[in-house]
Amino acid sequence: YLDSVPLGPPDAILGLAQNFRECAAAEKVNLVVGAYRDGEGNPFVLPSVREAESRLLARGETKEYAPITGSPSFVQRALAFAYGEECEALTSGRIVGVQTLSGTGACRIAGEFFARFLPKGTTIYVSDPTWGNHIPIMELSGLTVKRYRYLDRSTNSLDFDGYMSDIEQAPAGSIFLIHACAHNPTGVDPTTDQWDSISKAILAKGHHVLMDCAYQGFASGDAEFDAGAIRRFVADGHSMILAQSFAKNFGLYGERVGTLSVLTASKEEAARVLSQLKLIIRPMYSSPPIHGALIVNEVLGDEKLRSQYYDECAGMAERILQMRALLKSELIKAGSTHQWDHITDQIGMFAFTGMSADMCDALTKDYKIFLTRDGRVSMAGINHANVAYIAKAIHAVTDG
Ligand code: LMR
């Protein structure tokens, strides 16, 4: 049968990352994947993470299986990080959480859970655009995927009216997949007032929410601020599932560490939900890997290490903000007369430049600058040494 297996297309993000690896040009630049790089362009392991790892080693942590739902202590600390220590729903046991294979794994379990327990044919609405992987994750979970308006492509800012009207027009009881902060790929987040209206509109229609939180602390540099939308939605009493990733904010990309949590109405409901999450997880992969979770547990569980971590995470966010300002000023210096304010207005790992697929292709072909074809630039790949080269190349392809 294998002779009839068709060749599948490469992944829109990870396929290009592979092309970058295979490119031999000395001047090549990687602006594809949302993975932090330091000022010299190197991968960065947070010193607090290194310290936690050495403690685990010194303590002789074993390699035993975690429970199906992962490390209980990690889950508890991870949820307090997202919802806040004082969150009533959390302290009263109404939020039930499991450890997952990072944010992707959490989204997949959420998709499976929705498909099993919401009425057949329920639609999940994702932002237009959204992280490319959201769509196949939800489709393969058996949900119908539709889009809600999000980015106004003429201004590269939020299409707030379109967003509100799509919430209103979606059949009651649909699911809305929302990025908690640092929207991927656009870097465009609602303002506090807009969040307020979005929350009210979703509640009024009885929609369910899947909140995907991949950048807490990484967006503004302040983990509490970046959790604002999550905490507001809990306070407003939504039907909500949270997918939480520690890939970016802890730099634990390859460790695959995250959580999925469900906001329920009572402890009894929480117990039923948890039993079903176990039934989804066990036949998929039995139980999650432990190393990354032990690291996060160690960092969040130790006051000194935790405060060191906050500073380090803020440092990453700060470097990205500096690179935004620098990229914009280098574009102007290169002679570009386009409006680039959105580069500094947007937040998080990415700048959504507004470049067309043809322009992106030209950047890759002529300048060996690799980026996704939607015009998304991973700001983490930019540093003092390459910013002028990148700006000149962007100017050349956008003015050509
Ligand atoms: C990205 O959007 O580049 C990251 O979230 C990595 C990925 O898995 O796509």
Automatic annotation (TrEMBL):
Cofactor requirement: pyridoxal 5'-phosphate
Recorded catalytic activity of this chain's protein: L-aspartate + 2-oxoglutarate = oxaloacetate + L-glutamate
Classification via Gene3D superfamilies: Aspartate Aminotransferase, domain 1 (3.90.1150.10), Type I PLP-dependent aspartate aminotransferase-like (Major domain) (3.40.640.10)
Gene Ontology biological process terms from the UniProt entry: amino acid metabolic process
Swiss-Prot/TrEMBL keywords: Aminotransferase, Pyridoxal phosphate, Signal, Transferase
Pfam annotation, one family: Aminotran_1_2
Keyword set includes Transferase: yes
GO CC annotation terms, alphabetical: mitochondrion
Xref: InterPro entries: Aminotransferase_I/II_large (IPR004839), Asp_trans (IPR000796), NHTrfase_class1_PyrdxlP-BS (IPR004838), PyrdxlP-dep_Trfase (IPR015424), PyrdxlP-dep_Trfase_major (IPR015421), PyrdxlP-dep_Trfase_small (IPR015422)
GO molecular function terms noted in the UniProt entry: L-aspartate:2-oxoglutarate aminotransferase activity; pyridoxal phosphate binding
Domain Aminotransferase class I/classII large positions: 27-394
Subunit description: Homodimer.
Other observations noted: In eukaryotes there are cytoplasmic, mitochondrial and chloroplastic isozymes.
Protein name: Aspartate aminotransferase
Record organism: Prymnesium parvum
